[in-house]
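Reading is simple: each integer encodes one residue's backbone shape. The lines below illustrate:
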Amino acid sequence: MSFDPGKRLDPSQVEDRRGGGLSGPVLAGGGGIGLIVLLVASLLLGVDPSEVLGPALQAPPQTDVQQTAQECQTGADAQRRTDCRVVGFVNSVQAYWTDEFARRGARYEPAKTVIFSGYVQAGCGLASTAQGPFYCPLDDRVYLDTTFFDDLRARFGAQGGPFAEGYVIAHEYGHHVQDLLGILENTGGTGPQSASVAQELMADCLAGVWARHAAETGYLRPPSESEIAQAIDAAAAVGDDRIQRETQGRVTPERWTHGSSQQRQTAFQTGYRTGDLGSCGAG
């Protein structure tokens, strides 16, 4: 993925909490807050919440970092460093939705992304790397441990690549868009036709809408077919059926919370093909 090397980045949209020293067992929070974290926020695990808590307890402690995202100033930095790519993608995603909301006579409210390592205290409760990237509607923030991008390849079998990372970030901001539109709900339920799956697929579709217009924001060059393929492959890698097959040796559709590989691919492709949030059922 090629960023415009001379484009100025806005690192204030990203809060770097890596090396913050938070450690200990993870409690996702009680009652509705914990449910929000596990059902709405755990983007790419695609597993039942009960399967998340176990690995979360063994999440690694935070480690010191020598560089911070606040040093990310240009597109050239985004080409060189993962955290700077996060800044660049966040800037691009939010620039697109700012313009799109304005075009529709509405106002987009920016949401920060928090980069963390190990554990993080979010408005939705204490969370860990093991839960994957998530959006917390209680504090309007996206939370991301960049080591997840490595897990996307090593654990989920995705081919990876920068545009796969962009898809992950755009999906979480899709939840923020849902929140602003008043359609992000703690819906619950499981299964291919559940409200939970529909909500996640809409976020995949909204990620595709951004991808269609990414170059228009000025931060990125037009994505190539191979780069779009990275995003589609990442969507497939985190399908509920694929993860269930790899982790438990069988597929149990009645427990799906995010959608199958095919559903997630199709949702992203719909958004990318149309470039219209209306095609995602969001407007």
User: Anything to note?
Assistant: Residues 11-276 form one domain. The chain is about 45% helix and 10% strand. Confidence is low (pLDDT under 50) at residues 23-65.
